[in-house]
Description:
Helices cover 70% and strands 0% of the residues. The protein has 107 residues and is mostly helical. Helix 1 runs antiparallel to helix 4 and helix 2 (29-50) runs antiparallel to helix 3 (68-82). The termini are close together.
Amino acid sequence: MAISITEASAYIAELIEVLENLYWEAPSVAVKNQCFNGVHFLQNERTELTKVSVQDHHYEYEIISCSAQDMKHSLKNLSKLIENEVLRAQTRSQLMPLLEMAKTYFA
């Protein structure tokens, strides 16, 4: 599924916000470390996307700042770590669909 740069920018901004919330709520250092790693990758990506001309935001999105494999690996690890962690209901309900969408966005 091809997504536009505009859609990817909005998705990345939302994912960063939820991961930052998760970081502060995380009950374990392992989850905090993986959140930090994911936020780091995503902030670099968002920085690169801000450099794209507004006139080009309709073009198909592809990862700029790191490999798709690194991004997917980071988010997959996070997903595994939080499987059995107790999270606030709001954070879980926001995060799980975003992590599922990551499989498509970062394919």
